[in-house]
Specification:
Shape of chain A: elongated
Distance between the termini of chain A: 34 Å
Structural class of chain A: mainly alpha
Strand content of chain A: under 5%
Number of helices of chain A: 8
Oligomer: homohexamer
Order of helices and strands of chain A: HHHHHHHH
Helix content of chain A: 55-70%
Number of strands of chain A: 0
Largest interface: A-B, 94 and 94 residues
Chain lengths: 166, 166, 166, 166, 166, 166
Amino acid sequence: MPTAAMVEYDQAAPEVRAIYDDIMRTKSIDFVPNFWKTLASHPPLLARVWRGLDDSMQPGALDVLTKEMVALAVSATNGCTYCIRSHTAAARKLGMTDAMLGELMAVVGTFNQTNRLADGYQVEVDPQLMRATEGGGAAARPAPVELKPVERKPSKVKKKHRAAKA
Amino acid sequence: MPTAAMVEYDQAAPEVRAIYDDIMRTKSIDFVPNFWKTLASHPPLLARVWRGLDDSMQPGALDVLTKEMVALAVSATNGCTYCIRSHTAAARKLGMTDAMLGELMAVVGTFNQTNRLADGYQVEVDPQLMRATEGGGAAARPAPVELKPVERKPSKVKKKHRAAKA
Amino acid sequence: MPTAAMVEYDQAAPEVRAIYDDIMRTKSIDFVPNFWKTLASHPPLLARVWRGLDDSMQPGALDVLTKEMVALAVSATNGCTYCIRSHTAAARKLGMTDAMLGELMAVVGTFNQTNRLADGYQVEVDPQLMRATEGGGAAARPAPVELKPVERKPSKVKKKHRAAKA
Amino acid sequence: MPTAAMVEYDQAAPEVRAIYDDIMRTKSIDFVPNFWKTLASHPPLLARVWRGLDDSMQPGALDVLTKEMVALAVSATNGCTYCIRSHTAAARKLGMTDAMLGELMAVVGTFNQTNRLADGYQVEVDPQLMRATEGGGAAARPAPVELKPVERKPSKVKKKHRAAKA
Amino acid sequence: MPTAAMVEYDQAAPEVRAIYDDIMRTKSIDFVPNFWKTLASHPPLLARVWRGLDDSMQPGALDVLTKEMVALAVSATNGCTYCIRSHTAAARKLGMTDAMLGELMAVVGTFNQTNRLADGYQVEVDPQLMRATEGGGAAARPAPVELKPVERKPSKVKKKHRAAKA
Amino acid sequence: MPTAAMVEYDQAAPEVRAIYDDIMRTKSIDFVPNFWKTLASHPPLLARVWRGLDDSMQPGALDVLTKEMVALAVSATNGCTYCIRSHTAAARKLGMTDAMLGELMAVVGTFNQTNRLADGYQVEVDPQLMRATEGGGAAARPAPVELKPVERKPSKVKKKHRAAKA
C-alpha cells in the first residue's frame, strides 16, 4: 500500500469522482489506477497533475504513441517501476510491437551510455553544435521557409484519442 | 578541454580516421564532433560506442526523427549539456519545429513529475497493469493476429539516412 | 542561448504578456527570467507550467520558505544549475541564512549518501516501517484524534506572498 | 535479504551495540532498522554514517520535521524505496499530515518537472539571479543587518528530539 | 515477469543460442540470466549489448574484479535492483569480501554526498584542477616518460577470465 | 562564484584552518580547493564532510587509486562537473593512464546502459542471483574457508598516502 490512504471511487467526493470519470474515459479503461487514487489523498494535487498530464498527452505535433514511448523512455531512465508498467501498457495498447519496444530500449540504453561518457570526459560543446541550436538555430530564425518538417500523418490512434475525449 | 587529449583527424591512425569518415558521412556533417575526438583517446571505446550508436539509430520500426527526440528526452532527464545540444541539433535538422520540441519537453517534464510522485508515495502497480504488461501482455502472446500496429510511413528522413549510409 | 528562441516581453502576445506580468508580480521581481521567456516559445507549455508551479508554491500546510528550500534540495539532487541559482535566490530573499543553507545542504548530502547505501546493499523495508506508513499509517487511519500536528505559525513571508497575489 | 549479512543486536560487538542503543534512543524506536544492521557488516561504515546522520538531523536553524521532509524529498527524487518509507514514517511521527505530504509531493513533482525543462532547453542563468546568489548574494555580504530571517519558533518536536539525546 | 516475453534456451534461434552459450561460458554459470532472455525478445539488442558488455569487461589496464566493483558502484548510484544483485554476485565470486564491499559502499556513499554538495553550492572548478585535467593534464601530454603507472599484477581472476574465453 | 561566500585561508578561524592544513597535507596539494572553502561557510558541514571523506579514502581492502576511480565513476554517473575534474586530477596523479581511464569510462557507459535496460524491461532477479547474494551469499556465511580473496599488493601509492597522513 502507498504511504497515503487511497480514495476509492465510492468514497470519493463529487469533484474527485469527476476526475476519475475523465481519467477512465480518456484512457479507455474501466478502473481507476492506484496512482490517481493515491493522489486523491490530496485533491488539489490530483486535479493539477491530471490536468497537466491530460494536456501534455493530447495529440498535436506529436502523436500519442510517440508521446507514450517518450514517457516510457523517461521512466526507464528514472527507474520508476509503476511508470514503466503504466506507459508500457499504454504504448502496447496503441500498437507498440516487440520490435518497436526493442528499438526504443536500444535508444534509451545507448544514450544513457553516451550521456555519461560526454559528462565523464567533460566534452565541450562544439561551436558548430552551439550555432546550430542557439535560439533554435536556423530552424527558429526568421529565415525564408526552406525548412521541410517531416510529414507525419495523423494516425488512427490520434483520432481514437480525440474521439475518446469528445 | 575534456579530460583526455582529443585526437584530431590529421593525427588519427587509419582505423580511427575510417570511423571519423563514417561518422561524418552518416550524420551529413563536415567536422568530427568533440565527443568522438575524445573517445578516440581510447580507440576501442570509440569503435564500440560508434558501432552501437550507429546500429541503434538505423531507421526500423521507429524512424530516425523519433529516435533523436527520444535521445533528447533521455539527455534532458539526465541533464547532459553536450548531449542535449547534439540531439537538439540533429532533431532540428530532421525537421523538429518549436511546437514539436515544446510538446516533447511537455512530455519530458510531465513524466519526470509523475515518476517522482509514483515513487514518493510508493504506489503499487495495479494488477490490471501487471497483467497487461507481463511477458509483453496480450500484444506479445502467440494469439491470433488481432493486433493492428499503428501505420507509420517511412518518412523522407528515413530514406535520406539510408542513402547517406549507402 | 537556449535551444529555442526566447520571447521578449515587448514581442509577446497578450496572453503571454499576462503570464509574464503575473510571474513578476508573484515573485516581486522586475524582469522576466530566461526560463519563462524560453517556455514561451511554446505558449501552452508556459501557461501550464506556470499555473502548476504557482499553485504548488502557495502557502498552505507548508510555508513558502520551506517550499523554496525543498525545491533547492530537489534541484541540488538533480544537479540543475539554473534551478539551483533560482531557488537559492528565492530562498535567500525569504530569509535563508548561511546556517540554514548549510543545514539544508547537510541533509541533502547525508540522504543522497544513505539513499545509495540502502539501494547498494539492497536493504529490505522493516515490517515496522511498512506498518507505520501503509495507507498513511496511524496518522491517516480513522482513529480518535490523538495526533498533534506540529504547530507552525504563518510566517510573515506567507503573508507577503499572499499580498503579492492579491 | 540484503547483500551482506545483517548483524543482530544479540550478536553485535559492544561498540556496534552502543551505536544500536544510540539509534533506538535518538529515534524513539524499540528495534534496530535493517539499514543499520546491514551497515554493521562493515563496522566503520556504520559508525561513520550514523555519526554523520545524527549530526545532520540535530535541530538547529531548521527544525527536525523540516529536515525529515527534505530527506523525503531527496529520497523521492532518487526513487529509494527504503528511504522513502523510513522518512515518511519519521515525518508522520513528527506530525506530517496528508495535506503536508501532499504539498511536499507537489513541490517535489513540480521541480523535478522544471529541472528537466531548464536543462532540456539549456536555459542560461539570468545575470540578476547570478548577482543575487554569488558568494551568498546580498544576504551573505558584510552589510548592515537589514536582513530579517523568518521567525521560526522551536517546535515541540525539536525539544522532544533534544530530550531524547540528553 | 518482464514487459517482453523472455526467450528460453530451447526455443531460441541458433544465433541467439550461440550468444547464450557464450554468456554462460564467459561468466562460468549454468543458466541464462533473465536479463539476456529478455533482451532476446529483440535479437539485435541482445547481440549488441552482449558484445559491448563482453568487450568492456575484458581484463586490460583494469582487472575484472575492479570492473565488477565499478559496475556495482554505478548500479548502486542508479538504484537498479537487478544490476546490483548481478554485479554483487559476480564480484563476490571473484573474491569481494565484506570489507571490500563495505569500503566500496563507503566510497559510493561519500561521493554521492559530495556530488550534491558541489552542485548544490555551485562550486566552480579551481584553475589548478582545470590545468591538471585539460586534455589529460601532464599525464597525457607528449612529455618525457616521467610518469610511473601504478603497478598492478595480473590477478588470478584475470587469468581465469581469459581462460574461460579461450 | 558559489552560492555562499568562500572562506579564504587567511580569514579562517583556527579550527577551519586546521582542517585546511589537513586537506592540503593529505592530498599533497598547496592550495585549498574551492569545494572546501565553500563548505567552510558552514563550519560543522566542513568538519563532518572532510572527516567522512578522509576516512572513506584511507587505503584498506581497496587501494586509493581504485577508490578514486570509483569516485570518478560515481561522479560521471551523476554528471557532477566539479567532482569529475577533481577525481580525474587525483586519479591521474596516482597513475591513471589514458587506457585506464578509457576502460573505466567503458564500464561506466556500459552499465549505465544495462541499468536502464534492466529497469526499462522490468527484469526480475533470477533466483540464482538472489541466492548468491542474500546475506552476502556463500562468501559471507560461516563456511569453511574455501574463499580465496584476490591478492592485491599494497601499491606504492598506498604507502605514499599513508606517509602523507603520518
